[in-house]
Design goal:
Length: 92
């Protein structure tokens, strides 16, 4: 495996690890919040609407908090992908 391939794989793994972490936190909050809403006697339909709103707000907050890191990873990935595409042409 070439160094560029390894770098692409590393950046991709870091990107997906961050996304997995964000979704795991969202799932934990959703489960906790659903239990609280059930305890308060809120119906399932209202719970769903409230949870969708909370999920969107939390996702936007995560994007704002991790936005710089995600942007850097995406740009780095695209640069490495470009190098990976051009590299075979340089050897020919």
């Amino acid at each position: 495996m070439h160094a560029v391939d390894q770098a692409l794989t590393t950046v991709e793994a870091a990107f997906f690890a961050i996304i997995d972490f964000v979704f795991a936190v969202l799932a934990a909050i959703e489960i906790w919040l659903r239990g609280v809403l059930t305890g308060l006697g809120v119906g399932p339909e209202v719970q769903t609407v409230l949870l969708v709103v909370v999920a969107v707000l939390l996702l936007l907050a995560a994007i704002n908090l991790l936005g710089g890191v995600l942007r850097v990873l995406i740009v780095l990935f695209l640069i490495l992908l470009g190098i990976h595409i051009v590299l075979p042409m340089l050897h020919a």
